Amino acid sequence: MKANPKYLSFYYQGVEELPEIDIISSKTALLIVDMQKHFLAKDGYDARLFKKMGEWERWEPYFDYVEKVTIPNNKKLIECCRKHGIEVTYGRIASLKSNGADRARVQSTSGWNNILVPITSVGAEMMDDLAPQEDDIVVNKTTDSVSLGTNYSELMRNMGIDTIIVTGVVTDQCVAGTVRVLADHGFKVICVEDCCAAPDMTLHEMELKIMNVIYCNVLTTKETIALIEGKVR
C-alpha cells in the first residue's frame, strides 16, 4: 500500500510503500475511545466549564470539528463494521466510585486532567449517534489507555481478534495510550485519523506521525472503509 508522506516520521522518510493490510472480519474489532457526552456534548460538563471560565472561544473549534467531522466519520465506520460482521467495541472513562477515589493518578491531577465521570452519570454515556448496541462490549477505565486499564486485550484474545481499528479522543492522550499498549500486546492496529481529534490539531497530527508504522497504520475513514469492503472475508 502507498505510504502517506504526511504521517511519515524521521524514521520512515523516503518510504513509499508499506505492507498491505489484510482485514478478516472475524478477527477484527473496532474500538471507539472516550466519545462521551461529558467531553464532547456542547451542553456537557466540559463545554459548560469552558464557557464559565471564559475559555469557550479557544475550545469551540475542537467541539465543532468533533461534531462535523469526528462523529459523522465514526458513525460511517460503525455502520460499515456492523455490515461486515466486525465487532464494535467501546472504551470509556467511568469511575465506579461517585467521588472518583478509584481513578488513576493520571486522571486525578490538577487542571484539565482532573477527570471525574461517575459511571451512572449522563456524561459517561457515548454520544447518541455512536451509542453501543445491546451486545457490544463496553469497558470502563480510570486510566488513559483502554488496553492497559481494563481487561480489553484479554477479551479480544478470547474472541480470536488480532486486528483493532481505533478511533476517538483525544488523539495525543487516551487514543495514543491505547494504540501503543495494543501494539505492545501484539495486536495489529489501525488508527483512523479523521475519526480522532484533539483540541490542538498540531498535536493530533504529530502524534499520528509518531505512531504511524511503528505502533499502527494511520488511515482515513475512506481508506479504512475501502479496505474493509474490498478485502473483508
Percent range for β-strand residues: 15-25%
Q: Record the strand order, biggest sheet.
A: 3-2-1-4-5-6
Task: Give the mean pLDDT.
Answer: 95
The percentage helix is 25-40%
Key terms:
233 residues, 6-stranded parallel β-sheet, 16% strand, alpha/beta
Describe the structure.
With 233 residues, this protein is α/β, with parallel strands linked by helices. The chain has helices spanning 37-40, 45-52, 56-83, 146-149, 152-158, 171-184, 201-211, 221-231, and strands spanning 28-33, 87-93, 137-141, 163-169, 188-197, 217-219. Strands 3-2-1-4-5-6 form a 6-stranded parallel sheet. Strand 4 (163-169), helix 6 and strand 5 form a beta-alpha-beta unit.
